[in-house]
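re the bet — no i am not wrong, look at it urself. input seq straight from the record:
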Amino acid sequence: MRIVMIGTGYVGLVSGACFSDFGHDVTCVDKDPAKIDALLAGEIPIFEPGLDELVARNVREGRLHFTLDLADAVPSADAVFIAVGTPSRRGDGHADLRYVYAAAREFAEYLSPGTVVVTKSTVPVGTGDEVERIIREARPDHEWSVASNPEFLREGAAIEDFKHPDRIIIGCNDQHAEDVLEEIYRPLFINRSPLLKMARRGAELTKYAANAFLATKISFINEVADLCEKVGANVQDVARGIGLDNRIGAKFLHAGPGYGGSCFPKDTLALLKTGQDYDANLRIVEAVVTANDNRKRGMGRKVIHAMGGDTYGKNVALLGLTFKPNTDDMRDSPALAIVQTLQDAGANVRAYDPEGMEHAAKMMEGVTFCKDAYEAMDGADAVVIVTEWDAFRALDLARTKDLLNDLILVDLRNVYDRAEVERHGFKYVAVGC
């Protein structure tokens, strides 16, 4: 199949590369000349394990292409995927759909009869209807289809998720769109990946509902962790005890500093706004959003409390800045609120992250960025693990002890064993235990 991917961001680039690896002919289109030039030179603009090799292989074998030219790419396409950003709109929290609609207007004039337009971007209910209206206004003379095919990719494991998905959801309002999408995803049927067919609006809503539910699990276990600290229980025991129930499941029951990233914060907010637009109260989702926002600054206060309540002029070493490991994504990372809280209390922040410091430097003022974890801890009055990178799971505690002014380890990801850390003389503060 001939596929055009509009947008070379995280979703577009990963999806385009994986589709080409299935054997499809894929052309990724972007409006940014610098980004296209970089991709043509073999430079990958995002950090995702294995993506550079995947892109290079399929470019070399002639199945993956990059261009600025819609007029050259779109007319021969069997399917055109829209994979542009849908950030939260400043001021009201609605998903900002201007890039989706702009893309539809720009490629509409080049569509050929029978092409299927597919929204891969995360979009609110009814977006496909508007995309269809925009294209029909521009091309009333041709028959084509608009479908929804939401992505469910975890940053850091996106290629594995794409090639071995829990499910593939296609939202179509006509048989032709179903047939084309089935053919595109046919290579995955060998892996017995379930293909779920539904109406377009159902597919649009499923993406938001899935992310909101996972965010709810995170906020729930974080609140249970707070209760565990009050009553003397261990949240890891509680999480395992409830996670072994098949009706609940163990995933997303890891207490920590709150969720961040490119999906959960904006998608829960967008779902709330959709509920308001349709006069449907989503009180649970509203509570999740509020709880998570409070959680992030609360983790900064947790560090301050661990340091005796006075951090003015003291040095705090933060290990990990990205919202999760194996990505360079800083969007809505808990580290942002933690740093701000510490700085508001007069602390000096020294930080290290294996991949996220370039982005962090644009978002954090007054932070000293270090070359490794040990440089960050040199002369610090406390060390805080914010992101559970593998590099932080086995720190040399003897060396760490020699570097710190005060032996305080605040583990916001519960990666260490309390007895082992305390055996080295540290004050160990974890989450919910």
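see?? The CA atoms of residues 285 and 334 lie 19 Å apart. told u. also The radius of gyration is 23 Å. so pay up
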